[in-house]
Design goal:
InterPro entries: DNA_helicase_DnaB-like_C (IPR007694), P-loop_NTPase (IPR027417), Twinkle-like (IPR027032). One of its GO terms (molecular function) is 5'-3' DNA helicase activity. Pfam families: AAA_25 (PF13481). This is SF4 helicase domain-containing protein. One of its GO terms (biological process) is mitochondrial DNA replication. With 256 residues, the protein is α/β, with parallel strands linked by helices. The chain has a domain of 63 residues. It is 36% helix and 18% strand. It has a four-stranded antiparallel beta sheet with strand order 6-7-8-9, with no helix packed on it. A three-stranded mixed beta sheet has the order 1-2-3, with helices on one face. The chain has a two-stranded parallel ribbon with strand order 4-5. Helix 6 packs parallel to helix 9. The longest helix has 19 residues. The chain is elongated. The N and C termini lie far apart (66 Å). About 4% of the residues have low confidence.
Length: 256
């Protein structure tokens, strides 16, 4: 069943909670999410496709506890996960407990949407912009956030990239791992540390480049020059000009 018949929709309007349970293959997983969009995600719950949770008729055939499986259904919709089209200017005012909201959101996204890489931009914002957050030890709070993401990454096998702005340094000095805002916990817990170095304002020939300052697993370190691409309005690896053999060029001109 890949399509929801139009005539079925009116009969489902009376229910405040709908549990979607299909097979444990990819197509069934996609069908569940598509149905939820049509039925209103806020009232839809999903039985996640797993080996121990096959399709309903298979579970019934093997005598599994259907009630127990249905009771484990998870909501598809989450208030902190949205699309660009549905964003509103008042989102900030709703995030009173932002670190809790973010953690719940990434855990939900990992479960429902199979997210394998989470980017948090940035950690300083997660520490809060409200009055009570200013009265707390910001270093302690940052350490707690990093510890939560470290546990999440290990438990859920999900890659987490944390953006942390550096502390103030002299313009003439390069940023290092010690320049990361907060205590040493951020650099100690990280498997990889990438630093964006910008020397364009301190030198006439200064460049912007990405530095690999830590690589826990292979140890390979280095730098990569960044170049601004006007077409995509973003920075990327500087493109190398093709290496043309001079002898070949001279030979081609001679043939002409």
């Amino acid at each position: 069943m890949s399509h929801l018949p139009q005539q079925v929709l009116p009969s489902l309007e009376q229910y405040s909670k709908l549990v979607l349970w299909f097979g444990n293959d990819i197509s069934s997983w996609d069908t569940s999410r598509n149905f939820a969009k049509k039925l209103d995600e806020k009232r839809c719950f999903l039985v996640r496709p797993m080996e121990k949770q096959p399709s309903p008729h298979v579970a019934l055939f093997h005598g599994q506890d259907l009630r127990a499986i249905v009771s484990q259904a998870q909501p598809i919709w989450h208030q902190a996960i949205t699309t660009f089209a549905s964003l509103r200017e008042d989102v900030l005012s709703e995030l009173q407990n932002i670190e809790k909201v973010v953690m719940e959101a990434v855990e939900h996204a990992t479960y429902v949407h199979d997210i394998s890489h989470v980017i948090i931009d940035n950690v300083q914002f997660m520490m809060g912009v409200f009055e009570e957050s200013r009265q707390m030890d910001r270093f302690w709070k940052q350490d707690a956030i990093i510890a939560s993401f470290r546990t999440f990454a290990t438990k859920k096998n999900c890659h987490v990239t944390l953006v942390i702005h550096p502390r103030k340094e002299r313009d003439t000095e390069d940023l290092t791992s010690s320049s990361i805002f907060g205590s040493a916990k951020a650099s100690q817990e990280a498997d990889n540390i990438l630093i964006i170095q910008d020397k364009r304002l301190t030198s006439l020939r200064g460049k912007k480049y990405l530095q690999v300052a830590k690589n826990r697993y292979t140890g390979d370190l280095g730098v990569m020059a960044l170049e601004f691409d006007k077409a995509s309005l973003s920075y990327g690896q500087k493109k190398k000009k093709p290496n043309i053999d001079k002898d070949t060029v001279m030979e081609d001109k001679t043939n002409l």
